[in-house]
User: Fold this.
Amino acid sequence: MSKVMPLISKNCGQIRPTSVEDYVKAGGYAALKKALGMKPLEIIEEIKKARLMGRGGAGYPAGAKWQQMYEIEHTPKYIVCNADEGEPGTFKDKLLLEQDPLKVIEGMTIAGYVFNSHDGYIYIRGEYAAIQKLFQEAIDNAVQAGYLGDNILGSKYSFHLHVMTGAGAYVCGENSAMLNSIEGKAGRPRVKPPHLAEVGLFQKPTLVNNVESFANVPVILDIGAEKYLSIGTAESGGTKLVCLSGHVAKPGVYEVPFGVTLRDIIFDEEIGGGMSGHRKLKFYHLGGQSGPCGFLPQLDTEYCYKALRANGLSVGSGAVVVLDESVCVIDYLKCVTEFFIHESCGKCTPCREGNKQLYLILDKFSQGTATQDDYRQLERLSNLLAKVSFCGLGQAAATALNTCLKNLRAEFDAHLSGQCPAGVCFTNQETESGE
Assistant:
């Protein structure tokens, strides 16, 4: 079986992105027509059978999320697409937004029909300014063609879609912070419960899914849940868009069926093609900066939610950043920690101050002044962040650090004696003779 399987990305690069005519010729909107003849619970059942897991990072079963939302009686209900793709190493939503926006629009429209919602919002990150204009053009064309707006395809169902934008805050990728931003408030996470399905946008029930999640909905209805599930694994249906970057020969976005291995993703000629230079693989960072790092013994792990979780890894955002032997793990973790210092919203002390302290200790390792006590401080602080930070940003900020402490401890030890295996640290320091 091929290691690459274009399913939701098959139109990318093949059609004019905002052309409804091209999209329909490629099979687009067949799922919406089918959905309008189905009962909402029948659609939800298909999503559940397909084992579609949320593609935004948390990996929560989409069908269960839709079921919970459906059972809430309060109205109106809102549909929101999280397109605030701010996770470093992640650019798969950008591919869909740029090259097949109508598939995302169709998925949101079907969701709107299920929940009898009349308004949907897509929150596109501020750095994607050009994509915002393109997506609005796709919306306008869909309205003009009768696939969006009032009385869709001659039915009594009406759905209007609005493009919103942020100002580049990573924390707005957290769903409740994003909803606050849409409402014009500071982009800071909310206290939960109540959950967004009950009290979401404008204090009303709200369904929030990722770009890739919504893009899967038309595919599931089009080919059927059983066929969709058969493409992946028993626990993870369908395919996943994977973002490969770093020291890999063929960086880019690849759509792979769940069940391929991490080794396949990095080394198979259809996908990553191996390392970009003559150096060997050292480690890889999965799911963005908030995800765990993986190591050589884990390369044969199947890429699916269950198998990765069982091996201390995760799908996360779909990012796979490949690092070779030229990378110092301390230096890399300092960059990760700097990112979280910059992106912390400052709402809670553990995240706001804890990341700064982690950076200071890591810097002591890179300067050769760290002690055994610094090990204890690193572990204590990383555990503290995970347990008492207010939201997922702080809770996951030390994930990479923890996995590296566990698997690359020898490199930390080497820095205690002023040695950097990668040759990155200490190179600018004067010798004892002052040369």
Notes: Strands lie at 78-83, 119-124, 160-165, 206-210, 239-246, 252-257, 281-286, 293-294, 319-324. The two ends are 60 Å apart (CA to CA). Residues 245 and 251 are 5 Å apart (CA to CA). The longest helix spans residues 349-367.
